[in-house]
Amino acid sequence: MIELPANLAEAVTDDEVMLRWVATLPERIAESEARWSLAIEAPFQPGGVTAWVARARNRAGEPVVLKLGWRHEESMHEADALRAWDGNGAVRLLDSATTDDTAAMLLEECRPGTPLSHVRAPAAQDEVIAGLLQRLWIEPAAKYPFRELHSMCALWADEFVEKRATTGDIGLPDDIVEAGIHALRTLPTTDSRQVLLCTDLHAENILAAEREPWLAVDPKPYIGDPAYDPVQYMLDATERLSADPLAFVARMAKLLDLDPVRLRHWVFARCVQECIDTPELAGVARALVRQLG
Question: Does the residue 41 lie in any domain?
Answer without folding.
Answer: yes
